[in-house]
Amino acid sequence: MQDVIGEAGKTPQGDRSIEVTQHGNRPAAAPNFCIGRIANQGEDAVAADQPGKGAAGHIPAADDQDFLHRGILADNEGKQMSYRITVTPSGKSFDADPDETVLSAALRQGLVLPYGCRDGACGSCKGKVVCGEIEDGKAKPPALSDADRAAGFTLFCCAFAQSDLTLECKTVRAANDIPVKTLPTRIEKLERLAPDVIELHLRLPASERLQFLAGQYVDILLKDGKRRSFSMANAPHDDAFLQLHIRHVPGGLFTDQVFSTLKVRDILRINGPHGSFTLREESEKPMVLVAGGTGFAPIKSLVEHAFHEACQRPMVLYWGAKAKTDLYQDDLPLRWAAKHPQFRYVPVLSEARPEDGWNGRSGLVHAAVMADFPDLSGYEVYACGAPAMIEAARRDFTVGCCLPEDAFFSDAFTFST
Questions:
Q1: What is d(CA 213, CA 197) in angstroms, rounded to the nearest whole number?
Q2: Which of 254, 317, 319, 398 could form a disulfide with 289 if both were Cys (CB 3.0 to 4.6 A apart)?
Q3: DSSP code at position 232
Q4: Given CA atoms 206, 239, 192, 248 in this order, what sign does their dihedral have?
Q5: CATH code of the domain containing 306
Q6: What are the tens digits of pLDDT across the range 321-362?
Q7: Of the candidates 392, 292, 413, 411, which has an alpha carbon nearest to the alpha carbon of residue 348?
Q8: 273-299, pLDDT tens digit by residue?
Q9: Euclidean distance between CA atoms 254 and 293, whole angstroms
């Protein structure tokens, strides 16, 4: 998303238990019920069923027995043990190592739980421990009250598994499950990728994280109340900084500032995430990805997210630009193609210069797709770029290449001065 965006799609806005099995040796039968138990730093927790007795009773605090701190345990072979967490109603499961929080383990393996600060301050990741044992990484997380703790709740950003777990929580399934926030950010880096493209790295406050789905965008809030919209180029798991690809529009209210007066450590306010240009992860169809210019940014986010999730769906990326210099991160998809056999990259130039020495594909990027895929009936297309490109691709792919209309997902960039 570049400056003001007209997106195809809308801008966004049950308690079930999680059944868990231990990753390793298991008892022959599970108990009929279980009580969530929490070991807190600096204090002892006593389970409600058999106080002071065995595995179901007294739980040492982390500073009483160092080997329990962050659950560094060993199995029968002397190896560090992990614990299995299975989430309903989604039915998904993931393993949590003893030295990582429940939230970190879930996000690492592609299960998106609600979260915000990752530091115990906001309470977005609060959930209930129905069965199993956890250790709180903080003795008194700000967003967890004594009443919450007594009722069996914890904050997944602070909780470390000490056993297999049963939890009550919801998972993020769609863009409108994620809260939209207004946050200050600090410019960490401005990197010139091309003569007219800068990659802006934005750092959020230490107590905040922006939860988003690959392909979404944020609005930069300007002092006069106007907004300029840009897609995140980083994948959700790589969220130390927000990465925005900004093309200079001469006379642009914001892009002129980016290319002239903005500097490292300047503060910008953002609002987001927004957008429904996201990967349809439930699908098994092969994907055709079409990027025009800085439309590469959200496509990059989608692709890196798919790799992170170990997605094996075939993907082919067509990146269209005028001249070779406009393929400003051309080496990146080349590296993807070398590393991932399911991924292929086709750059296309419409106005190659003599100095480019170009012997690759030429012409309109969507025409190159049509030449290679005359029948798109079994594919999904993700397209991002100028409105004219999106309009032509939608029309020609559906009419000329039999692409189902509901298999075309797009984000169109428009520019404002």
A1: 24
A2: 317
A3: B
A4: negative
A5: 3.40.50.80
A6: 999 999 999 999 999 999 999 999 999 999 999 999 999 999
A7: 292
A8: 988 788 998 899 999 999 999 999 999
A9: 18
